[in-house]
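Batch manifest, entry 17 of 40.
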Amino acid sequence: MADMEWIVDGDHYTIRLDGVSHVDPYVIKLDAGRKRIDVFHHDTPPGTYGGKLKGIYEVDGDELSVCYDLTEQGYPTSFDAPRGSRRVVYKFRRE
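Output type: structure tokens
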């Protein structure tokens, strides 16, 4: 658990983690019809979760839920991320 914010601007976002803004934006591509999100992490160190993250998203009022498959193998089919699944779920609230 951490204090994380996404600052979205058009087709990219930056991350603010525990009050510290990261410099490089992450490019996003949404497929609204299938509720899919692709995030392109171009500058992560070797051995980390760089590349293209495949995920699903849902907007409910002022809340955004996102689930990513960290293996880059496919899109999750639910917002579950059990231990060992190599998936992560984020929940945000609009300010």
